């Protein structure tokens, strides 16, 4: 699709084009916000626009319906691909496959090993980064660990289950336990900014 053209630098909302940041670091932060169950859905867009300056301060985007803006962001995050049933079924797995904070060293090592890229200093479009990220192979420690975390132990032969249970526990993402904030606390924090 993008073989002969430039990678997109904007999102389309109701036939209007809005320039957005495309650097992969920004979109890793977008992913963190999208996946954060502590943030109510209706605040996620505000947090993205304020904290990431996702739209370069372009306030006109908020003249568009917020659902359409959110859908535009989701579409870009998915590389402008429709969500297929296979990716939807992956999400049903309750195991967390990776966490950018916990796995940063493993992700850096995987990119260095497989592509000889130091992603700490690379400038890269989100689409390019995501294609490389999704293309990481089982030869990298990161992909092996993701495999341990997401293995369905019940589908393994009985003699392997205990071993994989131990690996799964060893490499599990540590769930952050934070005090659940009230609606008033969240609103006060947002208004203070």
What labels would you give this structure?
single chain; 193 residues; mainly alpha; two-stranded antiparallel ribbon; 9 helices; 2 strands; 4% strand; globular
What does this structure look like?
Helices cover 51% and strands 4% of the residues. With 193 residues, it is mainly α. The protein contains nine helices and two strands; from the N terminus they run ββααααααααα. The model is unreliable at 87-91 (pLDDT under 50). Strand 1 (10-13) and strand 2 form a beta hairpin.
Unreliable runs: 87-91
Task: Say how many strands there are.
Answer: 2
Proportion of residues in extended strands: under 5%
The quaternary organization reads as single chain
Radius of gyration: 19 Å
Question: From N to C, what is the helix and strand string?
Answer: EEHHHHHHHHH
**Strand order, sheet with most strands:** 1-2
Structural class: mainly alpha
Break the fold down into its secondary structure elements and pairings.
Blueprint: E1 10-13, E2 16-19, H1 24-35, H2 41-51, H3 66-77, H4 85-92, H5 104-115, H6 126-134, H7 141-150, H8 158-171, H9 183-192
Helix pairs in contact: 1-2, 1-6, 7-8
């Amino acid at each position: 699709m993008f073989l002969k053209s430039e990678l997109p630098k904007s999102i389309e909302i109701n036939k209007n084009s809005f320039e957005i940041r495309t650097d992969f670091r920004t979109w890793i932060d977008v992913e963190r916000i999208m996946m954060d169950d502590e943030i109510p859905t209706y605040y996620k867009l505000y947090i993205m626009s304020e904290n990431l300056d996702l739209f370069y301060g372009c306030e006109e985007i908020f003249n568009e319906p917020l659902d359409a803006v959110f859908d535009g962001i989701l579409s870009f995050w998915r590389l402008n691909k429709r969500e297929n049933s296979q990716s939807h079924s992956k999400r049903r797995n309750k195991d967390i496959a990776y966490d950018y904070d916990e796995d940063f060293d493993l992700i850096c090592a995987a990119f260095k090993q497989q592509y000889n890229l130091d992603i700490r200093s690379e400038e890269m479009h989100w689409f390019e980064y995501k294609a490389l990220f999704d293309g990481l192979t089982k030869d990298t420690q990161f992909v092996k660990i993701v495999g341990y975390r997401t293995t369905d132990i019940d589908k393994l032969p009985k003699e392997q289950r205990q071993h994989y249970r131990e690996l799964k526990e060893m490499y599990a993402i540590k769930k952050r336990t934070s005090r659940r904030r009230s609606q008033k606390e969240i609103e006060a924090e947002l208004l203070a900014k």
